[in-house]
Structure formats: C-alpha cells, structure tokens
Amino acid sequence: MTDTIVTDVLICGAGAAGLTLSIELARRGVAFRLIDSLDAPFPGSRGKGIQPRSQEIFEDIGVLDKLVAIGGFYPQPRAYRPDGSYESAVSEPVVPASGEPYHLPLLVPQFLTERILRARLTELGGRLEFSRTLTGFEQDADGVTVLLACAAGTETVRAKYLIGADGGRSLVRHALNIGFPGRTLGVRAIVADVMLTGLGREAWHRFHESDLQRQISLCPLAGTPLFQLQAPIPLEGEADLSVEGLAALVAARTGREDIAIQSVAWASAYSMNARLADRYRVGRVLLAGDAAHVHPPTGGQGLNTSVQDSYNLGWKLAAVIAGADDGLLDTYQEERRPVAAAMLGLSTKLLEAAGRGDSRRGRDVQQLDISYAGASLALELPARSGGLAAGDRAPDAPIGKAAGQPGRLFQVFSGSHWTLLACETGGDALPPRPGLHIHTVGPAGDLVDTDGHVRDAYGWQPGDLTLVRPDGYVGAIAGPDQAAALEVYLRRVGLAAEAVTHG
Ligand SMILES: Cc1cc2nc3c(=O)[nH]c(=O)nc-3n(C[C@H](O)[C@H](O)[C@H](O)COP(=O)(O)OP(=O)(O)OC[C@H]3O[C@@H](n4cnc5c(N)ncnc54)[C@H](O)[C@@H]3O)c2cc1C
After folding, report:
1. In CATH, what number is assigned to the domain containing residue 295?
2. Is residue 94 within 8 Å of 132, Cβ to Cβ?
3. Would you call the peptide bond into 101 cis, given omega within 30 degrees of 0 as the criterion?
4. Among 218, 309, 379, 391, which one is least packed by beta carbons within 10 Å?
5. Is the pLDDT of residue 69 over 70?
6. Which of 315, 338, 366 lies at the terminal end of a domain, its last residue?
7. Domain CATH code at residue 412
8. Is 200 left (phi over 0), alpha (psi -120 to 50) or beta?
9. Is residue 499 included in any domain, yes or no?
C-alpha cells in the first residue's frame, strides 16, 4: 500500500471527548480529522451537569460564558411526599474562594454543550465530518492506516495517531483487544427529553426518591422548553418510549393526572455499567472519554471526565507531534486512568445511595481536587511537605498587573502555553523560549500579589519557581538553585532550550 500521511491525528467520535480534543489540537495548529458516524448532531440531553473543574477548562478554551448564557444552574430539588406535599432542599450558602472561581454545577443539556463546542471548533478553523464511520485500522511504526465508510464508499486515511473517542461501545477499544473489566450494576433506567404541562420550571421534581421501583424525576432543561425525565425500570422487558408510554409511566409514578406529556424529543432505555479499560494506549492508538471508562450517571461525572481526558491528552499529543519524546504520551494513561477508577467508585457509591433516597453531593463531585501528584510529570525540588504539591491543580488568585489593571492568575494561564511563575526574583533563571510565558510575581514583578492570595495558595518562598502546565496543573515547584533540573523537565515536555530564539 502506498499511503501518504494525510493528517497528524484522526479523532474517531465527535462527542464531548472528541470535540474537546479537536479544539485543543486546533488551538495548537495540529492537523487533524474529526469524524463521526452520525449524520447529524446527537439530540439527547444525557450529561447535563458541568462540574466546577470542567467550567475552569471551558473558560480556558473560550466557551464558558456561552455555556452559562445558553444554559443555567440547577433548580432546587423538590422531593414530593406520597400525599402530594413536598419538601425543597435548602442549599448551603456558597462561600467564594479566591483560588476556586466556580462552585456550582452548571446545567446545560449535552446537545447544547456540544453545539457550543462545535461552534468554537469552527472559530478555530477546525471541521467535523459527519457520516463517516471507522470500520478498521492497522498500525505500524510510523502511523495508523484507518478505513472509513462513507456515502461515497470507503476511504483510507493515514495518520500519525488515532484517537478512539468513540463512546462506551468503542470499536477502537475492541479492535485493540483491550479488556474492559467491571460490572453491570443491575440498574436500568429511562432517560427522555419531553415537553410537558403541569409542572413548574423552578424546581427539579422528584417522586418516591427512596423507592427504586417507583422513583421518577423531572428536571427542567435550561436553555430549552424541555424536561429531562429519569426513571429506573425493570431489567427485562420492552420499554415504551412513546408519548403514551411515558405519560402512563409519569401518571403511575407521580399519582398525578395534571402532568401531561405533549411530545418526546429524545428517549433511551439503558443499563448502567461501571467499567474501565485495562489500557489507554497501544502504540499510536489511544482511547479517550467513554471509550475508556463508563460510569452510572449519578454525580454527573461522565461527560466531565471525558472532557478532562482530552484536555490532558491534547497538549501532550501536540508536543509529541512537534518533536517531544513519544514517552510523554504514556503519562496520559498514568495520570488519567487512576482518575477514572476513582470516579467510577464515586458514581457507583452515589448510585447505591440514590437507591436509598440519598441524593446528597459532596465536594468530590466537583473534580477540583483531582491531582496528578506522585506521577512522573510532577517534580518537586526540594520535596515539599504540605500545601500545594507538584501535580495539583494550579489555583486561581486575584492579582494586580504592573501597569495598573487587576487580573486573575487564570487569565495568565489561559491559552496553549506553559507558565513559569517566579516568586519575587528568578524571572531570568531560565531563558525565554516559544511556548513558555515567564512572569515574576512580587512588588517589583510584572504581576503583583496585591492581597497575598498567590503566596497563600502557592506556599512560596522568595526565589521559588513554579511551572504550570497548559492544562492548569502544577508541573514543577523548584527552589532558586534548580534551574538546571527545570531545563531537563522542559526538554521532556518539548520545550528544550535548543529551541530558544535569542533576540
Ligand atoms: C442518562 C445519562 C445521564 C448522564 N448524565 C451525566 C451528567 O450529568 N454529567 C456527566 O458528566 N455525564 C453524564 N452522562 C454521561 C455522558 O453522556 C457521557 O459520559 C459522554 O457523552 C461521553 O462522551 P464521549 O465523547 O466520550 O462519548 P459519546 O458522547 O458517546 O460520543 C462518541 C461518539 O463516537 C461516535 N462513534 C462511535 N463509533 C464510531 C465509529 N466507528 N466511527 C465514527 N464515529 C463513531 C458516536 O456516534 C458518538 O457521537 C450521562 C449519560 C447518560 C446516559
């Protein structure tokens, strides 16, 4: 076969994972193709919860304000008693923290989130190709040859890397023969987007919360006139997803005749699984999103974990394609698989609690404490005891700019670059180079720690150097005499000093 490389990366699947990855590659000028077997965007609301950590990521990639504008926040849960009276949950007041700008989950139906991501991809010059199905592939030392089926017949694409972002039933994962151990959780549910009358949009209406046989919830979907219906159903048997079928289900479970289903925009009956791929990478083929892990929907973790897989993989893939050592790609599984394992445990635990009528959520669902500390890309010299660790999420903080304007650290990090923050001195410890932004934070620096928030969040001593990765995690924290070690680190991630342009 005389294939020519036509692209650097082929991304199979344009759900949340594939779209985020394509945006990350487009931002960095990497050539890619993004394909999906669907003929048109997926219409269902599915993953409607966007957690605070994902909001930070969406801020960085330039879509957060659009998501807030098109969606909204969760309405108060309203638990109905058998006599028709109800109790509304009272939320704890949210205490703003300088290091964490977002605390509340956003409610945006997944089809709207994906619409915003597609628009951002277009702004960046990227393109999504519908009606193209990956049917097989072969890899060798230099690339992957991929077979696509499309209306015109078949197409062969040669790419340096193939990413299977093709969902829970991933053909890519199957073709690689990667194990997907875990368990079927013995819970089957209906999820449907419906138009209805008889319920207000100010609450998330929940009936029979502690009875799995009779539970049903109806949540108004921000940004649409729809409600998302969720209800467990028996493991066996046909699920009637028609207007009449869902109307009968609602009437039987709520005991109310005033709720009328008018139409069904999308509906599905699915069995819940908790499964994790044994590997995320085989050679030049990697998995992202639900292709690598499937969880129950409790706690709203799946879409968020998928987006964050791609946010972790995107900069690494771009760095390797630009010449960094290919071993950098191994840190993707090293960092992301343990996160998925923990999320799988969390969402399964929450599913069990939901079966007992307990729908409380803790800080762990927010995903703000995800850390890659202890993994091979986390460097501390000297090792630190307590406080911020290398591998932790780099906190936000209000800052002043030397020219007089206020700002935030997240604005300094925003973009596809690495950031080196020097505490008071040391901004010249490393030579400048493409892809690295260097700032000195202090009274004589270009950034001013006006109220000490940076010092408190980063636990600094004068002369300390903190390297922040493009995905907003701390790569390295080093003392003033560790510039040589930072050079070695930067070479590993594709920012070698040889690339320096003096001027
Ligand atoms: C009821 C429900 C509620 C949920 N609630 C939440 C929530 O509140 N929060 C949350 O974070 N998550 C939630 N999730 C999970 C969330 O929907 C998924 O985790 C998310 O869609 C995963 O994104 P993905 O891009 O990895 O995969 P998908 O969205 O499944 O996208 C995969 C894409 O690959 C395409 N594809 C597949 N095979 C091929 C092929 N051979 N060739 C070309 N294209 C292919 C498919 O057409 C599809 O578009 C929920 C899920 C359900 C079912």
Report:
1. 3.50.50.60
2. no
3. no
4. 379
5. yes
6. 366
7. 3.40.30.120
8. beta
9. no
**310, two tokens:** 């791609």
Question: How far is the centre of ligand 1, averaged over its atoms, from the C-alpha of 19 (Å)?
Answer: 11
- Three-state DSSP at 81 gives coil
In degrees and rounded to multiples of 5, residue 77 shows phi and psi of -65, 140
* Ligand 1 midpoint to CA 289 (Å): 8
Instruction: Answer whether residue 348 shows pLDDT above 80.
Output: no
Least confident of 261-265, 299-303, 396-400: 299-303
* Six token digits for residue 293: 């892990």
- Give the residue-averaged pLDDT of 302-325: 97
20 and 115 housed in the same domain: yes
Residues with CB under 6 A from ligand 1: 12-18, 35-38, 42, 46-49, 110, 133-134, 165-167, 171, 191, 270, 289-290, 297, 300-304, 306
Taking the centre of ligand 1 as the mean of its atom positions, its distance from the CA of residue 269, in whole angstroms, is: 14
Indicate if 111 and 257 belong to the same structural domain.
no
| CATH code where residue 235 lies | 3.30.9.10
Q: Quick one: which atom of ligand 1 is closest to the CA of 42?
A: 49
Q: Which domain holds residue 404?
A: 379-492
Same domain (yes/no): 120, 156: yes
Q: Which of 10, 19, 37 to mutate to test the pocket of ligand 1 (most atoms within 8 A of CB)?
A: 37
| Cα–ligand 1 centroid distance for 306 (angstroms) | 9
Domain C-terminal end among 248, 273, 298: 273
Number of domains present in the structure of the chain: 3
Instruction: Using most ligand atoms within 8 A of CB, pick from 46, 50, 219 the residue to mutate for ligand 1.
Output: 46
Which atom of ligand 1 is the closest one to the Cα of 288? 26
| 26 found inside a domain | yes
pLDDT per position as a tens digit, 28-43 = 999 999 999 999 999 9
Dump pLDDT digits (tens) for 387-414. Answer: 899 999 999 999 999 999 999 999 999 9
Which ligand 1 atom is at minimum distance from the Cα of 38?
Answer: 47
Structure-token pair, residue 184: 């079927």
In a domain, 157, yes or no: yes
Tokens of 245: 């079928």
- Centre of ligand 1 to C-alpha 9, Å, is 20
Average pLDDT taken over every residue of the chain: 93
The tens digit of pLDDT for each residue in 178-201 reads 999 998 888 899 999 999 999 999
- Exposed, middle or buried by CB within 10 Å (0-12, 13-18, 19+), for 109? buried
Q: Tell me which of 39, 117, 166 to substitute to probe ligand 1's pocket, judged by most ligand atoms within 8 Å of the beta carbon.
A: 166
Does residue 332 sit in the same domain as residue 289? yes
Q: Read off the pLDDT of each residue in 80-89 and give the average, rounded to a whole number.
A: 86
Structure tokens at 370: 């995800």
